[in-house]
Amino acid sequence: MTATELLLIRHGEDWSRADAAGSQSAQGLTGRGLAQAQALAAYLAQEVARLGTIAALYSSPLLRCLETATPIAHALRLTANLAPQLRPDGDEWERVGRFLTQLCEVHRSGRVVVVGHASTLTAASSAFSRATAGSGDFALATLGHGWLSRWRYEDEQPERTARWTLLQHCDLEQLRLDFPHAAPTTQPAALPRRSQRADLPTGPVGERR
Predict the structure, then answer these.
(1) Cβ(10)–Cβ(145) under 8 Å?
(2) H/E/C letters for each residue in 63-88?
(3) Which of 47, 93, 115, 192 is deepest in the core (most CB within 10 A)?
(4) Comparing C-alpha atoms, which of 195, 196, 191, 198 is closest to residue 78?
(5) 24-46 pLDDT, tens per residue?
(6) Superfamily of domain 2-196
(7) Any idea where the domains of the chain sit in the sequence?
(8) CA pair distance 27, 149, nearest whole angstrom
């Protein structure tokens, strides 16, 4: 049996509520959202120091997710692979579950970080609970900006049956109880300078540079 960990992150606070007329794809993070992204990056870097390498980082192509993924990519020294499958278009429920399962197959026995939307995390919880016998269907009741859901995917051989287990579901305040040196979430934080930004590819998901 192999076990793969999937760390699903909702993007930081964005301007969608403040500017309802703006383009969904062009809405970036507020100052608080940028600080949340920095805090997540600090937390994950500390986790890598304790537990070892994270295999890959994926992000929705929308700006608010890219701005969340950028400091994470820099902290983990990874390229953020664009995942259009995570785009919130109202038709992502089945697609997200299939895509995340495929990531676990590609990165078997590793740990993978995925930066997406509220719908990414809720679609995943619905798909994963249905895929696990006897677990029932459920949705994550609380889901703010910067929340992290950690799932374990176990693939049992030779039957090839999969089991999903929710290991963690919490906000940045709870994460900081484990890692108190994460950046504060109430103060604006600038993105890294251009020379420090992650190389965000425009090619298909999985294409690494």
Answers:
(1) yes
(2) HHHHHHHHHHHHHHCCCEEECHHHCC
(3) 115
(4) 198
(5) 556 899 999 999 999 999 999 99
(6) Phosphoglycerate mutase-like (3.40.50.1240)
(7) 2-196
(8) 23
- Render pLDDT for 118-176 as a digit per residue (tens, 0 to 9): 999 988 988 887 655 444 444 555 678 999 999 999 976 555 566 889 888 887 776 66
DSSP-derived letter for residue 94 is H
| Angle subtended at Cα 42 by Cα 38 and Cα 45, rounded to the nearest 5 degrees | 135
Q: Which amino acid is at 75?
A: A
Residue 158's pLDDT is 55
* Contact call for residues 57 and 65 (beta carbons, < 8 A): no
Beta 80-82 vs 111-116: how paired, if at all?
unpaired
CA dihedral 16, 19, 21, 26 (to 10 degrees): -60
- Those residues whose C-beta lies under 8 Å from the C-beta of residue 149, and which sit 6 or more positions away, are 7, 8, 121, 124, 125, 140, 166, 168, 169
Measuring CA to CA, how many Å separate 75 from each of 85, 135, 190? 24, 35, 15
Residue 141 CA to residue 198 CA, distance in Å, equals 32
Round to whole Å and give the CA distance between 138 and 140. Answer: 7
Mean pLDDT, residues 47-66 taken together: 95
23 falls in which pLDDT band (50, 70, 90)? low
